[in-house]
Amino acid sequence: VFHEYFQSIRDELGDLAVVSPDVGNVKIANMYAQMLDAELAIIDKRRLSGDHVRSTSIVGDVRGRNVLMVDDMISTAGTVCEAARTLKDHGADQIMVAATHPVMCGPAVERLTASPINRIIVTNTIPSGNRYAGIEDRIVELCVGPLFSGAIDHIHYNKSVSALFRQFGDSKR
User: Fold this and answer.
1) Can you tell me the distance from the alpha carbon of 51 to that of 56, in angstroms, rounded to the nearest whole number?
2) Do 156 and 104 lie in a common domain?
């Protein structure tokens, strides 16, 4: 789902760096960097407490580049907002975040509102309701319905589910 979206807007992304907001997401960030023919950067973060993090340094060059930060979910938005501030401090231009699951709990919307993040791309794995109030203009919500229905169809007819992902390159996710 993300693959199709980012390929459709690749030209507008310009000089791009794909960023992992922490060491745990490097593999997926590298996959996106290769897919989008972009540079890879990694943020070194330190978790101070449950939802408080401090980004300390960046491995890679983001100066003057648009940035796509990829993460599995946005819960309280502490990680992505702190990372976005660090990216701006290091000269990043436009900052986008892609996250599969928009949990958006606690101070998430308030943090995202105050952050330098320009666009937040999420899927509809969690019903949005009014969870985006105040940041609707920054949200792009992608539909996973066709992917899920394809998976159900493949399972029902005893076909390979991984075949659904082969069109995107790596089927071993």
Assistant:
1) 16
2) no
Is 88 an active-site residue? no
Reading the block at residue 168, the tokens are: 């995107």
- Please name the residues in contact with 152: beta carbons below 8 A apart, sequence gap of 6 or more: none
The CATH code of the domain that includes 58 is 3.40.50.2020
- What is the end-to-end Cα distance of the chain in Å, rounded? 14
How far is Cα of residue 45 from the mean position of the Cα atoms in its chain? 16
Pseudo-torsion of CA 79, 120, 18, 62, nearest 10°?
A: -80
Pick the catalytic residue from 27, 45, 88, 159. 45
Residue 128: how many CA atoms within 13 Å on its side-chain side?
16
**The pTM is what?**
0.87
Span 79-122, pLDDT tens digits: 999 999 999 999 999 999 999 999 999 999 999 999 999 999 99
In total, the chain counts a number of residues equal to 173
